[in-house]
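Data card: per-record layout.
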Amino acid sequence: MSYFDKSKLRIVPQLEHNYDIIVNDFDSFDYNYIDRLGKFKIDTLFEKWRGLYEFSLRADKRQKNVFLNSTVKSRKKNYGHYILEVNNKIIWDGIVLATKANLFKRFNHTYIGRKYFSKTLSLFKKYKEVITVSMARFPPNRIIPTHKGNRELIRVHYGIKIPEGDISFKVKNEEKKWENGKCFAFNDFYEHGGWNNTQQDRIILIVDLDRKMILNGV
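The structure for this 218-residue chain is written out next.
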């Protein structure tokens, strides 16, 4: 199977039953925010993210026609806010809201998570398998080429604002469309990509789960 059976994930009903809370938090968010903590933080999480995404997009030989004579790079807009570009055109950006990717493995909220998404993050309190919660924007008329991620993760996509039209996601050769208030999940190491041929941003939550904990029946 290309996608993971979401009925085996405890977090899924928690998310799908609380769409109003999550979308209300998003509606309070301003992309033009000023991160007052970013200037004081050493963003080691970004270095891990940059290495993973830049390498995975460049390394797939089957994508050579996509990236022939192209420049693939990622950059940091603010602490926890990362942008992926091809030929200086943003194809994806994400904002980390909370993560265990730190020295003490505590589920720490970022500045943006605390300021704008506190009610959303309260939904994750009792789920030890959750490693990172991010919000991801997929701009209009963009393609995210096929790539692979981290084999240790089960990744959940949860629809917040999904435009109508030609927009979809593909794991291996199986396509799914995002839906508002609904989840799907997959092994991040499987080949995946997507496209947004609409005139609007697609907004989702990305929830990374510890794959070993899931397989051990957490």
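Known properties of this structure: The first strand starts at residue 72 and ends at 78. Residues 6-33+90-215 form a domain with the Jelly Rolls fold (CATH 2.60.120.330).

See the next section for split statistics.
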